[in-house]
């Protein structure tokens, strides 16, 4: 990519950061459930989850559309390219940068350190893809995870708001599990297999493979927590009396 292309991509990423900043301010103006207002520690989490939900809906549907519109991309994961995929990666890079800044500036780093690690991995990987123009298809496949994140975020919003509708939470619990397999575990497993088999382990390929393997470990850890929390609560350790205020989201 030439200097002009890099400058345009940087502008797109910066524009995305600004968009999510505006969404954050909008989330501040939205009404909050009584269960959130009564617990100061939850106000930031609620707002942060709403912004995360917006990104998941937009990026998840965008990734699905990109692959549906250009299915031939799947035959060239290393060098396939589409304008839609490039824009999506820039858009999500902006979200990860915004969320990182939101965590740090609101003094949530200690409780959300896992997400800072994840965001650092995602930002560094996406920047390398944007600059080189390679492995963009892999990024689009990874961003299918945002379809799963829609239901994962709904799960936490329901828990935080204490919505008196067990049936709604129960329905989302099983949909969330199905989406986790279809849009998180399956694409991740396929890409891990592809990288280990076909990608040369040097330079950018080595960097992305290492990122992918670390992400595998994180996803399996989160999956085990999710299963213990929603399906095998008797296996949870040290959760008695635990409050959900101290963690960014995902498991509790």
TrEMBL record:
SMART domains, alphabetically? Answer: TLC
Provide a GO biological process annotation.
Answer: phospholipid homeostasis
Classify the main location.
Answer: membrane
Q: Does the keyword Transmembrane helix apply?
A: yes
PROSITE patterns named in the record = TLC
Record membrane topology? Multi-pass membrane protein
* Limits of the TLC domain: 41-235
Compartment(s) of residence: Membrane
Which InterPro entries does the record associate with it? TLC-dom (IPR006634), TLCD (IPR050846)
What is one cellular component GO term in this UniProt entry? Answer: plasma membrane
Record field: transmembrane:
6-27, 48-68, 137-158, 178-196, 208-227
From which domain of life does this come?
Eukaryota
Record keywords, A-Z: Membrane, Transmembrane, Transmembrane helix
Q: What is the name listed in the Swiss-Prot or TrEMBL entry for this protein?
A: TLCD1 protein
Gene responsible for this protein: Tlcd1
